[in-house]
Design a protein that fits this description.
The complex is a heterotrimer of chains A (166), B (305) and C (665). Chain A has 166 residues and is an alpha/beta fold. Chain A contains six helices and four strands, in the order E-H-E-H-E-H-E-H-H-H. Chain A has one domain: Rossmann fold (3-Layer(aba) Sandwich), CATH 3.40.50. In chain A, 43% of the residues lie in helices and 14% in strands. In chain A, helix 1 packs across helix 4. Chain A starts with 13 loop residues before the first strand and ends with a helix. Chain B contains eight helices and four strands, in the order H-E-E-E-H-E-H-H-H-H-H-H. In chain B, helix 6 packs across helix 8. The termini of chain B are far apart. The relative contact order of chain B is 0.13. Chain C has 665 residues and is of the alpha/beta class. Helix content of chain C is 27%, strand content 25%. In chain C, helix 11 runs parallel beside helix 12. The longest helix of chain C has 20 residues. Chain C starts with a strand and ends with a helix. The chains are: A alpha/beta (166), B alpha/beta (305), C alpha/beta (665). At the B-C interface, loops of B face helix 16 and helix 18 of C.
Amino acid sequence: MHPEKQTHAFEPKIIAFVCTWCTYAGADLAGTSRMQYPSNVRVLKFPCTGRIDPVFILKAFQQGADGVLVSGCHPGDCHYIAGNFHARRRFAVFRKLLEFIGVDLNRLQFSWVSAAEGGKWVEVVTDLTERVRAMGPMTEFKELAMEEQWSGAINTPELQEAYNSI
Amino acid sequence: MTPIDTSIYAAITDAIQTEAGRILSEGQVTAVVGYAAARRKGSAQPIVISNPDDAQKLIFTAACVNNLAVYLTKAKKEIPKTGKIGIVVKGCDLKALSGLMGESQLKREDLYLIGVPCAGVLGSTVQPATELTTGTIAAKCTECDAHLPTGCDFVPNQTPITPELEQKYAVEIARLEALTPAERWAYWQEQFSKCIKCYACRQVCPFCFCEQCLCDRNKPQMVETTPRPAGNTAWHIVRAMHLAGRCAGCAECERVCPMDIPLNLLNRKMAKELKELYDHEASFEVLDKGPLTMFTDKDDQSFIK
Amino acid sequence: MSRIGVFICHCGENISRTVDVERVALEVGKLPGVSFSTDYKYMCSDPGQNLLKKAIQDQKLTHVVVAACSPRMHEVTFRKATEAAGLNPFLCEMANIREHCSWVHENREEATIKAIDIVGMMVERVKKNRVLPTITVPVTKRSLVIGGGIAGIQAALDIADCGHEVILVEREPSLGGHMAQLSETFPTLDCSQCIMTPKMVDVANHPKIKLYTYSEIELVEGYIGNFQVTIKKRARSVDEDKCTGCGVCMTKCPQKKIPNKFDQNIGMRTAIYVPFPQAVPNTPVIDRENCTWYKTGKCGVCQKVCGPGAVDFEQEDQLIVEAVGAIVVATGFDLYTIDEKPKGSPIKGYGEFGHGKIPDVIDGMTFERLASASGPTGGKILRPSDGKEPKQIVFIQCIGSRAREKGISYCSKVCCMYTAKHTMLYHHKVHDGQAYVFFMDARTPGKSYDEFWRRSIEEEEAVYIRGMVSRLYQKGDKIVVMGSDIAVGVQVEIEADMVVLATAIQPQKGADALAQKLGISYDKYNFYSEAHAKLRPVECATAGIYLAGACQGPKDIPETVSQASAAAAKVMTLFSKDKLEREPIVARVKESACVGCFACKKVCAYGAVEVKEIRDRQGNLIKTVAYVNPGVCSGCGTCQATCPSKCVELDGYTDEQIVAMIEAL
């Protein structure tokens, strides 16, 4: 009955931030249509992509997400008139910032998935999961969290001297 | 290292003194925020005067680096609100004031703006008595497009001579952009690891006027507060994001950073993106909405699947 | 300390087939704060709900997580049950382990692990849930109906008969819509005008109905119970109060050769006109594009001959604001453009069938006008090209409809029946004529429908050919129709005098623009979307807005009338209370932390954010802060994501709740 389970050395953790009206409903449709996709994704429901704060993406990476998906209604379809338009600008800028800081943007996916696009939800989630799986774990933020250093790096002779004198 | 002509600063000082004296004695303003000589040779510091006789203390030199706008914002509450306030502003400072007006933090009718034609000020690591040259000028001044403030109540009738300079941030941004994500990450981790979370950058920023900073919140803790690498990185990302589309480019954050973290580099990168994406630039114009509080239905979405 | 109860539903086998529900219950039971955890076959059933209620009371639960289907399905059910057991309904959350887990993953181990994660996430979230009191808002007991066809008329009459005021807005100069254009109606063949016009008159005479014809919706603001609608009343150039409807202006107007849209452009009208003689209101409109006065500044005959002096060339468009509590959208349909590819549309045209090029290839609505006793031919079936009576007529069904390659996959639902009607009308009027019908399938569900269709074949001698037409072309004064009869397996060629295409039903042009003004959703064809396909078929997802008629999807008259009455019933349900209770998912400002930058106000699409001044007892201004009007707020939370210090928070989706979920991962 069950298909041969493919095993992978690394199973990425994918967090999806979605709006309730379009993408969450699209994911529901994928379910009612019994479509299949990787089980790596964990979905967080928001009323609107307009509610999704860039800090949540940061927080997700810090909590060990290997990939993050943000998805909402297509332009013009926002249940709240324009929340997705505001989100579009916010995330256009935020991803540029992350890129500049050194985050590989292949780990961060944005999409419009309507309530009618169960198939697109499956495609987006599958693509992101497979891409991130191929990239391996996101180590950057995790390593930061592990670091014990509690202050400015003592990386100059003067600082070292001052430190030693304490 | 070519010298930059600052000979107009003496005449500007005179003009500021006269104007400040006049508006104080006529009762047009209750106080004037400006610069005065400080103890070290050639250095300058902010001063608030309310007596017309003190107008003689006001100066303008290449050491007048501070953005005085920060003294007017609500959260800092440095100046008691007792009527109209005069303030000495360089072009970069005026952009900050315009931004603050757009965000309902200041009202134009409460201010008397004394604009300064500015050829540039000294970099943060330079001794205050140093001559202003292409080598000692602040990095922000190399990219300045606002030497001559407009829309002020008074501007001394001087025209600064401003040579074309190598745009220091643009060059550095281009260098970093050419690196791989991993290399950039390494670069910024080196920078952020220096951070001691003193929040001087927040304290000096005219736009960090929140009464409660998100990064100080503990229910929930959105950003780790400790000066550990994880918290430092998060702080600088959140700071840059919150300033995106608002930062006026005064570079005070970078100037006051005791650990020499190139903070304005992040701000400039954001400014560059906002210019490219939405044709937004900080300016003297008071905008109803900033680039991240508005949208058009034609906005770029090439990054969205 | 929380005492959380977790209830894992098997959903028969829908969940338990893939997810090890016992293991989920066991694992989740170990989470801090969870004091009760169980699984049950059908949580949504009565015994399931009773299990939940009993556990809340017996176990003194403080929060509830039901892991079952999508919250879009049963959140309301379980929140009601939670409330019935004495807890605030917003202390109950659902974990979606069916649509988002058991149905989309086959591997039992993976699905079980994911289900544990999902439930764990919701457990952490629910700990941060706060008691939210229900919000009540006042209800304005007046209704707006958009569209004056049969749907709009029926809804308006029903609501008005209940004693509530109705504002009826129609874009055309007269009420009536498409039904007024029809000749006879299936399955009884009663004259459309005879049953329609009395209803139009009822609307005009109803003391509770305020009629705006030749008007459009300009702007819709507000929310359920409290909409502010701006109506653009276009300049008629005729004073409605003065005009007596005598019609002298129309008889004297020198511009007499303007194609009349009401007659599908085969009949002509004057520049000052009413679309048809029984128009309501019977007040003419000047078509400024074709009027000599507006084109040259000369003429003015209508003004000179008008006894009451009603013609007013200076009249201007007016903007009228009306306050209403509910809106019924009944904007109806339009016919598929078959002559060319419509601009900017993914739909391909039917140029190959010669429509627009061969004058005697017409669409169904044009046939209706030819067959109508009040139509341009006085009810005689005559060819548009030479006015001859067609002796051989071919009807082709499914033009556009069910043609995925043309961009439309749906069935237009009424064409089978109206084509059968057309063959009958034709046979009644042209006794020696022969009608042929090319059809794919005959779809005749409906009371007395199949009997009607059979009658067209058995009694009215129409020849039905199962198959599609590949090509048609003009040959002399005949149209050669080439097709296949797949029942017999032969090619068919008919020399016809006239061809009638049963074109697809589409939403009105501009349906999408209106939807955007109303803030309602629509599908890829621009048909308006109902809140639930089966259980809420007349409500929009946007509260307070209801749908009637073909704007939602193709419909025949009885179905349209039923839906219109249903929409009216929904409006009356809303109006039955003085105050409306609404979900308390709204933003609130923490005034102590707000510095009044008003970023929230700038991004609020609803204008829900107001400026509030905080003063001390002496009346001195302390500070200016943002205030969210809970009646206007729709709960999108864009303000919170924009606020740098997060001092505006969306109840139900607070940062604490969301961060708790992220941290649970």
